[in-house]
Amino acid sequence: MYAYEDTAPTETHACVWPVIKRIVKEHQWADKRAFDLGCGSGATAKMLSTLGFGVTGVDPSEPGIKLANQSFPDLQLHLGSAYEDLAGRFGKFPLVVCLEVVEHCLEPRRLAKTFFELLAPGGIGIMSAPYHGYVKNLAISVVGGWDFHHSPLWDDGHVKFFSMKTMRLLLEETGFGRIKFERVGRIPLLAKSMVAIVEK
């Protein structure tokens, strides 16, 4: 169970949120509801609420959800797993975000299926994960950084390492046809994360 100590945004939020805010600004939203799949302690859900969205979210971390509900009682954040039938439980949403979650999942296809099912027809989904590509992987190798990068002693840490190619394959297998990517944080070839923007 991932441990959260507070509800403060992280360095990754600072990289990914500008993409979300731009996409929200670029679209007309007749229905301003959003779902945060893997909401943690609620930082992104709270940010979306400041943009005018009614936000629902789930996370399997009891400490995370406890902190979120104490800090943001106006949000609908619940204990739950990406492996559950969340669309059956909560319905479908015009905006679904899933930030830095898929790399923690032993069964990423099950998460991607849930992500797809939560998204309403015509909706927009945003999924991010740490970026891996040839140049970045080579740079990590040159500096002998794989032990730190993979962090095998990090409880509940990363278990999957995606490139744009493998994340695209995951999303295409799930049923998404319109997929765009952006790299965020640092220079593009050494990007911290990648953001997949999908439409249904």
Structure description:
It is a single chain. This protein has 200 residues and is α/β, with parallel strands linked by helices. It has one domain: Vaccinia Virus protein VP39 (Rossmann fold). 38% of the residues lie in helices and 24% in strands. The protein contains 8 helices and 7 strands; from the N terminus they run αβαβαβαβαβαααββ. The protein has helices at 11-26, 43-50, 62-71, 86-90, 108-118, 134-142, 146-150, 164-174; strands at 33-37, 54-59, 76-79, 93-99, 119-130, 178-184, 193-199. A 7-stranded mixed sheet has the order 3-2-1-4-5-7-6, sandwiched between helices. Helix 3 (62-71) links the parallel strand 2 and strand 3 (76-79). Helix 5 crosses helix 8. The longest helix has 16 residues, at 11-26. The radius of gyration is 16 Å and the shape is globular. The two termini are 31 Å apart. The model has no long low-confidence stretch (mean pLDDT 93).
